[in-house]
Amino acid sequence: MTDGLAGKVALITGAGQGIGQGIAFSLAKRGVKVVAVGRTLSKCENTVAQIKERFGQEALAIECDISNLDQLPGVVEQTVNTFGRLDILVNNAVSATIKPLIALELEEINRAMVTGPTATLLMMQAAYPHLKTNGGSIINMASSAAKRWDMTNYGLYAAEKEAIRALTRTAASEWGQYNIRANCILPHAKSPALAWWTENRPEEAAAFVKTIPMGRIGECEDDIGEFVAMLCSDQSRYVSGQSIAVDGGQAYMG
């Protein structure tokens, strides 16, 4: 049995580094044509260059800051114009503000909601008619922040991620009739964002790792990317509307 991924096309936001890049590599090694989207073009071009070197696979880099909402439909259009189809959408790019609720400013709240649920929804809407053609898979990034035993300082970040989970579940319900699957993952990975957090909050980061039963942070490609590839494959064709923690056993999703 094959995984059914060869020849498909995936659009991945935030693919210039970290988790997005790891997912891009794992899909490309299975014959998926990847469109790497990010606000820093050089990083996306680096991802594309590595895909071509490692896997000999076609790929395209597109510069786009997802907070520029009017640009999002054009990213999908450019993807389809280049490769003729779209089968997989990975909404990975996001911003994070970590501070007490009382200290949050309107600009920060708006930015979180724009780059989180709003951009995610608009990308799904733009991708919908193309995913509807042959069926497809949507992977959105959530977080276990809302499952923390102490959510101090993480309220806004958790809120934007929980909104994304709600949108994902709704897409699975409304679009399942067209064989469009939508799932969320809640990942822990050695990304630049996590490296920044570890450097700036070392005590909190050390305590955090101790709560992971497997005792380690995941690898962007070998752990997160490989799981996403499986979730997009034919082997997972009956999985939709789920939020799955890919975190070494830390989060309880019940």
TrEMBL record:
Source species, domain of life: Bacteria
Alphabetized GO MF terms: oxidoreductase activity
Keyword Cell cycle (UniProt): no
Oxidoreductase as UniProt keyword? yes
Keywords (alphabetical) are: Oxidoreductase
Family, according to the entry, reads as follows: Belongs to the short-chain dehydrogenases/reductases (SDR) family.
Q: What protein is this chain from?
A: Short-chain dehydrogenase/reductase SDR
Q: What is the originating organism of this protein?
A: Aequoribacter fuscus
